[in-house]
Amino acid sequence: MPELPEMENYRRLLSQHLINVPITGVTVNREKTINMDTEAFAKALIGARIVFIERRAKHILFHLHDGRRLLLHLMLGGILFYGTEEERPDRTTQVELAFGERILYFMGLRLGYLHLLSVKEAEAAMGKLGPELLDHRMNLERFTGLLKGRRGALKSLLVNQHVIAGIGNCYADEIAYDARLLPSTLVQNLTQESIARLYESIRRVLTEATEIGGYMEMPFMTGDTITGSYNDQCKVYDREGEPCLRGGGTIVKIELTGRKVFYCPDCQHEQ
User: Fold this and answer.
1) 145 plus 256 within the same structural domain
2) 22 is catalytic
3) What range defines the domain where residue 84 resides?
4) Is residue 117 part of a domain?
5) Which residue of the set 3, 6, 8, 174 is catalytic?
6) Which helix (H) or strand (E) holds 63?
7) How many domains does the chain have?
8) Where is the Formamidopyrimidine-DNA glycosylase catalytic domain (predicted)?
């Protein structure tokens, strides 16, 4: 599932190409992806312009010129591609938005969605999300406060969108590895030193992954050499049985509260 770095990478690329370009065509191939009748959805969007693109957690919000919002959540397997009909990948598309000769293809949205909302509806949809740890207002003191009174495994905390927004399975494991903490570590037992190390690891891993395009499997457009560059940078995620890059150990995979977890038992500890 695309996480904060992948969606932030998309936000940056989309902002370079779509701002103030009128939507000239709308194709809906899967009506469950949108939140209204197909004809009404198309009528509302044709001629509209995107004036600003915002990312919130794992969502993208397209701000339209009339004040409404297009809320996108790719969920599991969703990807975006921007280009001509000749350039499009051989994949099924759920929604297509045309901007002249170029089209923004929404693919793999079997569980994802693209909803047209009012400002109030969009704010309500985002209202239950926790803070973002790359926000300039975040600091170690505020982060420590987020953990106060929390219980349970570190991995479960990191992927809880109501506590911390934007982190999913991949980056939770990468962050725990960077902080040298076991994903199963109980949050209530963390020392202040461990909390400080965890905070720095969250910021470091998310920033690095964002700067090199996250782990998406497909370029955003022809000539895009950034998107997906983090694929080869993962230290533990999806590396079961491979040697730890810090030396000595072997990456293992377990299941923790219904989620797969990758870590190194030699260099990750309770504190």
Assistant:
1) yes
2) no
3) 4-126
4) yes
5) 3
6) strand 59-64
7) 2
8) 2-112
What is the pTM (predicted TM-score) of this model?
0.94
Residue 159 placed within a domain: yes
2 in catalytic set? yes
Active-site residue, from 11, 58, 69, 239: 58
**pLDDT reported for residue 155:** 97
Q: For 65-91, what is the mean pLDDT?
A: 95
The pLDDT tens digits of the residues spanning 96-122 come to 999 999 999 999 988 899 999 999 999
Is 259 catalytic? The answer is yes
Chain position carrying tokens 């065509």: 25
Tokens 């509302």, located at residue = 44
Does residue 53 surpass a pLDDT of 90? yes
Distances (CA, A) of 35 to 31, 43, 218: 8, 14, 27
| Domain annotation covers residue 133 | no
State the Cα–Cα distance between residues 219 and 141, nearest whole angstrom.
38
| HSE of 40, CA atoms in CB hemisphere, 13 A | 8
Q: Which of 126, 148, 180 lies at the terminal end of a domain, its last residue?
A: 126
When computed from its CA atoms, the radius of gyration of the chain, rounded to whole angstroms, is 20
CA distance to 134, 202, 234, per residue, from 4 (Å):
10, 11, 15
Of the residues 150, 180, 197, 259, which is catalytic?
259
The CATH code of the domain that includes 207 is: 1.10.8.50
Given the residues 2, 5, 183, 219, the one annotated as active site: 2
Residue 237, classed as helix, strand or coil, is coil
Q: Is the pLDDT of residue 129 over 90?
A: yes
pLDDT of 81 above 90: yes
What residue has token string 């936000």? 11
Domain assignment of residue 134, yes or no: no
